[in-house]
Amino acid sequence: MHVCQRCVSLFLSRPLSAALQPSTRAPHQRSHLTLLQHSTRHTLSQRHGTQTGTHFTGRQAASPPLYNKKEIVPLNSDDHRIDLDSAVHLSPLQEISEDEAVQIQVPSALPPESSTLRPYVDKSETLSKLVHLGVNLWKLEQRPNVGSMLVRLDFHADVAPRLLFLKDLGVEESKLGQLLTINPFILTESVDNLEARVSYLKSKKFSKQSVAAMVSKAPYLLNFSVERLDNRLGFFQKQLGLRAEKTRDVVTRLPKLLCGSLEPVKENLKVFELEFGFRGNEIQHIVTTVPKVLIANKRKLTQIFDFVHNTMNVPQSLIGKFPQTLVSRVLRPGPVPTVSAQLRLLGPLGVPAR
Questions:
Q1: What is the arithmetic mean of pLDDT over 113-136?
Q2: I need a labelling partner for 157 at 20 to 30 A (CA). Which of 43, 99, 301, 347 fits?
Q3: Residue 146 C-alpha from the chain's centroid
């Protein structure tokens, strides 16, 4: 069989699928393509054997094939080619760029759930820094949802700005741990809101030192909105009939008045007026002298006043001048010793006997 050199060159330069597709060529080229097809089939049969019926026979080709193995592509499969050689296998010693390094995700070593914060302290920068500040995590983990909130906080984004704000405000560093132990929710407050509430207190002529002392005594103070703080100050000034200066002094000494409920305050004021019989000016003197009586337990106040006034026969006016008595402890009264019993306790020269 004779094949011209020109057709062989043309056949080798094109894929087999393209060479076998019908085309409108010259009769001379079509005849040579027909011969090439027969030659290709004959060569394939020599290399891989021919199947006749159910018996397979074949032998290796004696001469090298006229085609390139890499150029053999199944017919009508151009859209489904899979190049397995092009798969990239990175070496563990191969250097990567900074952008690729940032995209690497390392699985967290933190446990998915725990009943205590102890397993997270060594892994969480936030918890370890809070421990160094003196925060009692064992107290916080007993409160609902506080432990999970602390684990999710980022120290640089969430904790550090609030700590710097409190320190700039004037809160002592030694008191930050106690403050956060009582009120960890201040770490979730917006810094803008905290600054707005401090600005409001300063606009009411509270000094910076007073605000810092109030926040240290009442850690929840800055968690309340400006509207709530304004309503509380107005209530005490109107209810007690005090001047603005006296009202600031009472609130600075007992900032819990701005945080707690107003019901105990209203009840105690009624007790002083209706049960104890104090007049308005006496109540003002008692409150400005001992602000704690406004939030004291009603039962204890009544018990102390009854003992001092009825048992000890101390006049009501004297109790009003020295209201510290109303917040003192009630000791169980014992029998009053007689004169002879007191003399037996003394020695011959008036020295107590041993």
A1: 81
A2: 99
A3: 9
pLDDT value for 267: 95
| 57 φ, ψ (degrees, to nearest 5) | -130, 150
Sequence-distant (6+) residues with CB within 8 A of 146 are: 140, 184
Helices (H) and strands (E) in the chain, counts: 19, 2
150: CB partners within 8 A, 6+ apart: 117, 126, 127, 130, 137, 140, 184, 187
Q: Which two tokens stand for residue 329?
A: 């402890």
Q: Residue 48's pLDDT band (boundaries 50, 70, 90)?
A: very low
Nearest to 66 by CA among 5, 18, 21: 5
- Give the tokens for residue 233: 């100050």
Asked whether the beta carbons of 186 and 150 are under 8 A apart, the reply is no
For the segment 179-229, what is each residue's pLDDT rounded down to a tens digit? 999 999 999 999 999 999 999 999 999 999 999 999 999 999 999 999 999
pTM to 2 decimal places: 0.60
| Strands in the chain per DSSP E | 50-52, 55-57
Beta bridge partners of 51: 56
